[in-house]
Automatic annotation (TrEMBL), chains A, B, C, D:
Principal subcellular localisation of the protein: cytoplasm
Residues the entry annotates as binding ATP: 12, 74-75, 111-114
Residues bound to Mg(2+): 112
PROSITE patterns on file: PHOSPHOFRUCTOKINASE
Protein's gene: pfkA
EC number: 2.7.1.11
Metabolic or biological pathway, per its Swiss-Prot or TrEMBL entry: Carbohydrate degradation; glycolysis; D-glyceraldehyde 3-phosphate and glycerone phosphate from D-glucose: step 3/4
PANTHER family per UniProt: ATP-DEPENDENT 6-PHOSPHOFRUCTOKINASE 3, PHOSPHOFRUCTOKINASE
Name by which UniProt lists this protein: ATP-dependent 6-phosphofructokinase
Residues that, per the record, bind substrate: 134-136, 171, 231, 275, 281-284
GO terms, biological process: canonical glycolysis; fructose 1,6-bisphosphate metabolic process; fructose 6-phosphate metabolic process
SUPFAM superfamilies from the UniProt entry: Phosphofructokinase
UniProt organism field: Natranaerovirga hydrolytica
Physiological role: Catalyzes the phosphorylation of D-fructose 6-phosphate to fructose 1,6-bisphosphate by ATP, the first committing step of glycolysis.
Length: 357, 357, 357, 357
């Protein structure tokens, strides 16, 4: 009898989703008699029984394509959090549709929120395999998520471009990168791009430290500086606030983001000309790099190996260069942030990068 | 006797400056007995007699490099405009230093402001050759400026990346590109990137038209839309305002830019999810494309041909695929904006792009 | 009544074909009641009545894609040349199928051979519009073909990469680029990449001149050199041979190509370490650059303007920055090679490039 | 007293050398009172006492640059192998010059050969730290070498470009990549590029297997195929030969490389049109990717940590995501090839890649 595999992508998109979808599908067609059911637009599609029966040719030529051929959505996840408390209708709807579609397993590609939801469905008795994707690299249990290194390449390219104009104009340039709770993307692209100051949520900074790093460069004859700033970077003062106080504090600053506040301080107190660049959503778009295609291919192929062995309730992970699997219940709800003894922080400090602490 | 050629880069930087500098230098060393004097940081360097005697090896390996090895500055130009009215000290200083450095000619690489300044110096009797560079492509008298096509490539790449994420998320994405008075960059990258709506200063738009273009796409089954918006784009209402009224009007909108106002309208009136991306200064950075290297090389080489023939007071230009020269006095102070009968606007309309008019 | 437009791509593929196909289709759907018939694999598809009825969604998302969604083939063209002499069966078959498909017009995207074939069909009374594509830029009557600047970008990128390794290793590096009869691609990428020697078919070289250019660089303290060589480059001696003598002469050299022969001479007579790189078919692949997307879009949109006005028997062309049309009979069978007074050759010589002549 | 650190780069160049040099230098200037002595052109420079005293500004702006600012050479290594047997003059010369330059340590960046040489110098009592660089990723003791992932990116980009043209033309395209003994580069870029057949030295193939993989694709309705072939790939028959027999066997084939022989077989026995592309030295050139910049920065910074602790005779390595050091004597002379149970081979097989075995 044909195995029926459902597949959906959920949460913010990132490069490599299609490469992983392709690997799941190609491996499935190679190893088993299978019908693949593509669920449209993430969990929303499962709730609404919005799906398409896929054919082998649907997975041709998508290895290099950005985005996701299945569509994705963020909203349902937020609503699902509420569901946990006050009603279970939506989870119920998903269980009903999983059964109505006669799925043997549901493969779910997503980030932290998605893993949490995937675990909810597992608790309801569904067969779930999750694949960790996100440009934030903040999923617990895996050394790397696909999408991350593609985003690092894009962010580094932005810093490289900013570099030449900074140098020509004797300016202090601030580049604000994605990453609210985890600073991986800013840390990696900051070091790769040779940023002079790198500010990430895990290392609260003081404005004084940032200013003195800039002054020191100036005193050493450097005519420009580059700051790579995670959108979630915060001062040591802010780090002591509750989430609520913090949000209120930021709103009072009136600047659209931390980078603008900081630029303001730098120009008013040091007299340097500043510019802020926010590459925004380009960090999640376009073709995946070779690194992410390799990783996504390995993750997708491993999902089928698990399915073959009827091992469900896992997320696929990279651990010490090996492709492994981790129980969803261990991973769900946890965040992997940058440790302060991360070797890249050490290396960054050694080559002279200031982390503002 | 050695010919003494001064060279400076002024105004906002752009890809191709070093390629042009290299072409000037290599052609000069090949054709004449020459000493090249690099003036630091644009006209500011000439005012302050801040310069370096260049050697042939200074021009090696710079063809591909972004920025300018001579440095540049914007400020002096603004101050020079004031000088025109109330005193001539700075222009005088430049004339004095030109003579003190015993220059035979000053080669000036820059945009509109620079051409205006270059013409001021020409009127003082200095031998000037200008080379038109800018990502805005708005210099009168030349079909193209170097830097432009590199910026188009970068902006198109941003739109491409945004495309994949827009499609995956059913979103309306707004990309705000550089260009205050001229829409060349937004027009070219908008068409190249397949933007559904392109808004440029030369074609005032109405919000109603933009909304109905988006609704039409939605009715045709398209789940997402891309808008490419020049930072200087304005509504038909705004187009009737004086500069002063316009600025006041925009300040009252509270949004940091036109794109945010528009995003607000789209999401509140059509209910679409929107995101704004502002690539900012990355549009001026990084290595020049092959196109700009070829153009910059031709412009730089032509400058030396003019100098050989003692033809001064010109800017080099591209006209109907030929490298020609135009009197500075004809070019200075004029702006080349997009004509409404530009064939690319026609082609854009034909393939279904809305210009909001 | 619906207008029936056939469309096919023929000859070697190049970046921008899909962008042009999209522009033809989108403009047609916008301007007229139309049915678009995609002919598969070039003229071969027309001969064999191998086609598909296209739908609007077939043209979505293809702007950036390399290759051609219609497929292409070279072979039939060669056979058609024979047809001219000894029989007309294949041309007849095409006329029959054109009529059987009830086409109002056939839009043909291709290079020199394709234009020749298109003209044959025109002579048979068919309504033909041609669009000039090729990485060689050698189609008579148009300043530029789409595909060309994308190939220049790729070739320049190869030269850039070779540059860093040449410099590090004190080597003479030879890069052999596409172009049998026309040297446009090698000329543009050679100048853009800063090649020290550029050899193109239009400027026969002598080995002595190449060697002395390399020696001169060495004497000036340069530790490496880069040669950009068109595959059709030939010595002054070879230039005097008949096509037959020339081919025999080359076969006797035993080296797989001109670059290897030249590398051999350089290393044996000057003692420099040499390496040959042949990027090959990567020069025709991948996404078109923004430049080519804009050009292909304009060409494709213009085709529909001609069709609207019932103007047939033309190829679309770029002339002095304007999109125009040229009678096929004027263009077919002619080759546009590089003129010796091309301004880029002049500029190249000025910056010190040797053309080996 | 100032610490005197010598630094040299040896063997084939690769992206990331300058990034590593910069990290060594910046970390040294930050942590100690230091004089850095740049040895020119690898071991040759040490033999000939060809060096320059470096200044901090020499290391500015080189993070992104391909090649090596110190120059490199391959030849001396080959000669040194002979030295081991018949005389020690060159090693002696290096010891003498190391002492004459009063070096406290010599940092050596290179591949397998370099590590062997570095170990020879260690045995002579010199303080040596090695950093593993190579596009081949074949250095024993480290999970990754810098330069590798940049080369994978370049090779993958070539395969991507070939892909679009293969598809349009119904062709079998063969891409021959660097790697004589180790297939890492071909394996990674082959999987990343979605090659249908991947041939590496570690997995001897049979022509029959390759042909039947191609036939199977054809029978499944695929109109084209891509082969990624390491230059050192060999048949199962060849794998049984001695090195000498193998070389003789290949010479008799007359084709310039394995790819051409294979293309010949494919076209004559299956009737498919074939094309061979050999990207060659572009695989080692250009700016390092963000991945390699990060790795090179960590390696370079770690070298200074070892020097601070007076730990000499080590090479820096990546092991399970940690930066560690390994005794040179353990690493020298060993080759890290692809294990047959490498997870990427498994994943490749799962998604349908043929390895020809």
């Amino acid at each position: 009898m044909k195995k029926r595999i459902g597949i959906l992508t959920s949460g913010g998109d990132c490069p490599g989703l299609n490469a992983a979808i392709r690997a799941v599908a190609k491996s499935a067609y190679n190893k088993m008699d299978v019908e693949i059911i593509g669920i449209n637009d993430g969990f929303k599609g499962l709730i609404n029984k919005d799906y398409k029966i896929m054919k082998p040719e649907d997975f041709s030529g998508i290895l290099t394509r950005g985005g996701t051929i299945l569509g994705t959505a963020r909203t349902p996840f937020k609503k699902m959090r509420k569901i946990e408390e006050d009603n279970v209708d939506k989870v119920k709807a998903m269980v009903i549709n999983y059964n109505a579609l006669a799925l043997d397993v549901l493969v779910v590609l997503g980030g932290n929120g998605t893993h949490k939801n995937a675990n909810l469905l597992r608790e309801e008795g569904l067969n779930i395999i999750a694949l960790p994707k996100t440009i934030d690299n903040d999923i617990w249990g895996t050394d790397l998520t696909f999408g991350f290194h593609s985003a690092v390449d894009i962010a580094t390219d932005v810093i490289d471009r900013i570099h030449t104009t900074a140098d020509s104009h004797d300016r202090v340039m601030l580049v604000e990168l994605m990453g609210n709770k985890a600073g991986w993307l800013t840390l990696y692209s900051g070091v790769a791009g040779g940023a002079d100051v790198v500010l990430i949520p895990e290392i609260p900074f003081t404005i004084e430290n940032v200013l003195s790093a800039l002054k020191e460069r100036y005193n050493n004859g450097k005519n420009f500086s580059i700051l790579a700033i995670a959108e979630g970077a915060r001062t040591q003062e802010e780090a002591l606030m509750t989430r609520k106080e913090f949000k209120k504090h930021r709103r009072n600053l009136k600047d659209p983001s931390i980078s603008f506040s900081l630029a303001q301080e730098i120009s008013s107190r040091l007299g340097f000309e500043t510019r802020v660049t926010i590459p925004g959503h380009q960090q999640r778009g376009g073709a995946p790099t070779s690194y992410d295609r390799v990783l996504a291919t390995q993750f997708g192929a491993h999902a089928i190996e698990l399915i073959e062995k009827n091992q469900f309730g896992y997320t696929v992970a990279l651990e010490n260069n090996k492709i492994v699997s981790k129980p969803l219940e261990e991973v769900a709800g946890k965040l992997k942030t940058v440790n302060l003894d991360n070797p890249l922080i050490q290396a960054g400090r050694l080559v002279g990068t200031s982390f503002g602490d």
